[in-house]
Amino acid sequence: xxxxxxxxxxxxxxxxxxxxxxxxxxxxxxxxxxxxxxxxxxxxxxxxxxxxxxxxxxxxxxxxxxxxxxxxxxxxxxx
Length: 79
Description:
There is one protein chain. The protein has 79 residues and is mainly alpha-helical. It has four helices and no strands. The radius of gyration is 11 Å and the shape is globular.
């Protein structure tokens, strides 16, 4: 994975666990928001930092966790 990849997996896992959601629960919530390409396997790879999240996925995570106005919750620079 490139050094500058968006690596937010640990924060996604923390916020998901904070809500007592399984990975499948989070995927279902993301699907309701329109993130239809997310699967449990993709989410698992993002959370263990095997795969970077795309900018669009980061937006969906921010929306589902209610931090859309504060993307700093993901420690990602806002461009």
